[in-house]
Design a protein that fits this description.
26% strand, Aminopeptidase, 148 residues, 5 strands, five-stranded mixed sheet, single chain, alpha+beta
């Protein structure tokens, strides 16, 4: 039986393991030993604007999603930014992504935000197809990271 719920502190090690798997799926290597566990814990369990959801079935955690409130200058409104949505390989194409998105939509509405934004690598064709089937609109942009 699938359950989407807010993450608990007891879930942190499994969330980190899924973060590592998610990064690997997108071609990025994260060393779980170096993962900033304390920083993640303080972000997802003490910051009101940051939300971490987990998907759970009878076998344990099978996915996670993180989002945070942000502001759009162009829309002159606050929105929910979906940073990560990951479902374990063995649990994909079973409606878990849809369940996550419905939960995220409920959070957006409860917080009186205008919309949800997110991004996914162009190589993630399965995710892009899923999002388009939801009715999401695709905006192509380049993403930059600057660490001077």
């Amino acid at each position: 039986m699938l359950k989407i719920r807010k993450a608990a502190k007891a879930d942190l090690d499994e969330i980190i393991a899924m973060c590592v798997a998610h990064a690997a799926y997108e071609g990025v290597e994260i060393n779980p030993i170096d993962f900033p566990k304390g920083d993640m814990s303080s972000l997802i369990f003490t910051k009101e604007q940051v939300i971490c959801l987990v998907a759970e079935n009878e076998f344990g955690l099978i996915g996670y999603a993180t989002c945070a409130e942000q502001y759009s200058t162009w829309a002159a409104s606050a929105y929910l930014y979906l940073d990560c949505l990951y479902v374990k390989q063995e649990a994909r194409v079973q409606g878990i992504g849809t369940a996550f998105m419905k939960s995220i939509q409920q959070i957006m509405k409860a917080k009186k935000l205008t919309h949800v934004q997110w991004q996914t690598p162009q190589s993630n064709h399965l995710a892009i197809s899923f999002y388009l089937k939801l009715g999401a609109k695709e905006f192509l942009k380049s993403r930059f990271i600057w660490t001077p």
